[in-house]
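Pasting as-is:
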Amino acid sequence: MKINSVRSLIALLLVLAFSVVSFGQTAAAISGKRAKRIVVRGGMVVDGSGKPAAGPFDIVIENDTITQIAGYDPRDPNPRRPEKGDVEIDAAGKYVLPGLINMHGHTQDERGGKPMPVEYVTKLWLACGITTVRDAWASKKVLEYRDKIASGTLVGPRIIAYGGFPAANLNTDAQVRQRVRDLKTQGFEGIKLYTMDRDLMAAMMDEAKKQGMRVMHHVGVEETNAWDNIRFGTTSIEHWYGIPDAAITSGRQNFPSNYNYNDEVDRFRYAGRLWREADPAKLDKVLQGMVDANVAWDPTLVIYEASRDLQRAQTNPAFAEYLHPVLEEYFRPNPSNHGSYFIGWSSTDETYWKENYRIWMKALYDFGLKGGVIGTGEDAGFIYQIYGFGLIRELELHQEAGFHPLKIIQHATSNGAMILGKEDTMGRIRVGYKADLIVVNGNPLENLKVLSPLGTEEVKDGKTVKTGGIEWTIRDGVPFHAPTLAADVRALVVAAKKK
């Protein structure tokens, strides 16, 4: 081809590109930019309340709020539909869900002391449809990231920062209460509690209520258990420790004499033998007590999955393009890194953990049947779980536990908002609510894997075709093109590997 012809072709492409941006709506032109009025056209809607999908609907967003949800009959040749928006998103043949809420996230910019770009984390979350993250044990730097996201200088989901509450150097009622007040003053919205003696926990919880701060509790192997969460009114129990502990007849798990809680191989090996020691009748009372006291459960089923099948965890298909080398190094067995405990892990350990999961999942399902509030969290950045992908896998594990996909989406949306105390403004596709929603290429009620950036495969006209993936994540009324975000993350990984 002659040079002049090449130049003419380039000029033509530039004109076409300008025309599409000016008169059409390319993804690049609108991604990450606020528009006064957005209309999402013709999608099947799963609203997050637990009721069945319905549609097609046009959803009108003005600034950061859903202002209209208009249904129509596609058989009508002249249906009455909302006026055109400044941005039009075609959702015909797609499903529209509320943005997913990650109830146990970590906004990390390093692993094992080695720097890792925070955009790797935040863009992955958005690419996987997550519009809100409750950051567990957030630092002051996370508060800065939260504010940058809110101001539009960092691309990411909304961050709800919960400050850490260690027991170290907090030995009196007065010290504990002052720590709560300090966290409030620093700008944290809630508290992530770990190990604490019962009397100090009572003081902390009392002061947290006075300050209007919700509490998420990772109950360790300690003096307290789920009965204390019930008594003191914890907002949510994280993971599951403390629930079976409260149902053990002897009062304490049957640890071997050489057990060392600070040795993570010991800790996680025998955690895999805990549920089998819980008395079913006592466990039923604990679960009912949680329901009666409105203590929610964020089980994070995904974060321990490697314990029941290490090889599966280590060969996650997402690792090929999405695993940052700093995170990859952190995952390798290393007693210096929390969660990297697979040293001498055996088939016996995996067998116990498989049984652990069966009992744990049944308890979670029973809790849901009793009316308990269940959330979804990933705790990624540890134990072979990467950001965003971990939450999608969490949804699959809720399905394995027996929940219907409509309930699972409720867990990941309106239930999460309820746990955060924001159920009147977010977590549902409803007029007057925050414009947090996702447009999905596929039906997640049929296959939750369509939420993944990896997509999935389907047979159409006798041929296997690649499909699925989230097309748009809209947070606070700002549309983000999920495939573009995923491509940005892949580029970050490639650049890091070259170094």
